[in-house]
Amino acid sequence: MKTKEIKKLTQDQLFSELEKLKKEQFNIRFKKKNGQVTNTASIKTNRRTIATVKTFINLNRVK
Q1: What are phi and psi of 14, to 5 degrees?
Q2: Closest residue by Cα to residue 53 from 44, 42, 9
Q3: What domains does the chain contain, in order, with CATH numbers?
Q4: Are the CB atoms for 22 and 46 separated by under 8 Å?
Q5: % helix / strand / coil in the chain, to the nearest 5?
Q6: Tally: H helices and E strands in the chain
Q7: What is the pLDDT of residues 8-49, one digit of tens each?
Q8: pLDDT at residue number 37
Q9: Given this model, what pLDDT does residue 62 score?
Q10: Phi, psi at residue 48, to the nearest 5°?
Q11: How much is the pLDDT for 20?
Q12: 3-state SS assignment for residue 42
């Protein structure tokens, strides 16, 4: 998900997106341990997307 798309989300949508990304991150890590992940870059991408979503959640709290 791109930053422009994340900016347009409401606070509730950001929280639901964060939960979805955390579940996805867990699944990717689990698959990596089992040797099933073919795209290891998805771990890094997912981690950065989570950080971006958390940043926008905190920015919305300040406003």
Answers
A1: -65, -40
A2: 9
A3: 3-62 (1.10.287)
A4: no
A5: 80, 0, 20
A6: 3, 0
A7: 999 999 999 999 999 999 999 999 999 998 888 999 999 999
A8: 83
A9: 82
A10: -70, -35
A11: 98
A12: helix
Measured CA to CA in angstroms, residue 63 lies from 16, 26, 52, 56, 59 at distances of 20, 31, 17, 11, 7
Distance CA 4, CA 20 (A): 18
The per-residue pLDDT for 18 is 98
- Among 19, 29, 23, smallest CA distance to 57 is for 19
Q: Is-contact 63 21, C-beta < 8 A?
A: no
Phi, psi of 53, rounded to the nearest 5 degrees: -65, -45
Distance CA(33)–CA(13), nearest Å, equals: 30
Query: CA–CA separation, 41 vs 58, rounded Å?
Result: 26
